[in-house]
């Protein structure tokens, strides 16, 4: 990453990057399908549907992401969100090395702000981060329903840049080129590219099969590699 300016803002994805939420999401989808008297899906199939927000996850699980009757989608999505709110912490855990990496970044670069930008609905995202104590590292946490668009649209990332600049208005503005998006899927890599930011891809997450085609700037195999990869 030496062809880029020094990082001044770090933005992290949540699912598959900071936390492994795969089992709780899969269980919630299959509970929804059972509620609708539909057959369950293998966890691996459901996991491949994660990354574009709750609505698209349910659309895919129902079999046709391009067309689902409004009434069916409303019922399915409503049940899913209700069930997931109650079960979002049954099996979810923070990846090994995440706290150590975040502490190392904060110790070495205390003036670099960090935030979360996920396509998960914002309330469970914030609740999960608070539960595990991740929230103390981040000045903001935005979800897939925080804006009118989701990743890979760059709106949320650009909003976070603006908010980070507002924290220190006397300093020179942080630019997209000084911003790094860390995530586990092509959605995150494309979000960074669409904003003019840099990207770090996490192969340990939920969608490693999508990363190569997206061509991230840097790839890591574990969270503990973040400090050296980001600030190389």
Automatic annotation (TrEMBL):
User: Which GO annotations describe the biological process of this protein?
Assistant: DNA repair
Catalysed reactions, semicolon-separated: 2-phosphoglycolate + H2O = glycolate + phosphate
* GO molecular function (one): phosphoglycolate phosphatase activity
What broad class of enzyme is this?
Answer: hydrolase
Return the GO cellular component terms, semicolon-separated.
cytosol
Pathway per the UniProt entry = Organic acid metabolism; glycolate biosynthesis; glycolate from 2-phosphoglycolate: step 1/1
**What SUPFAM superfamilies does the record point to?**
HAD-like
EC number(s) from the headed UniProt entry: 3.1.3.18
Q: Which family does it belong to?
A: Belongs to the HAD-like hydrolase superfamily. CbbY/CbbZ/Gph/YieH family.
Return the protein name. Answer: phosphoglycolate phosphatase
**What organism does the UniProt record list as the source?**
Granulicella pectinivorans
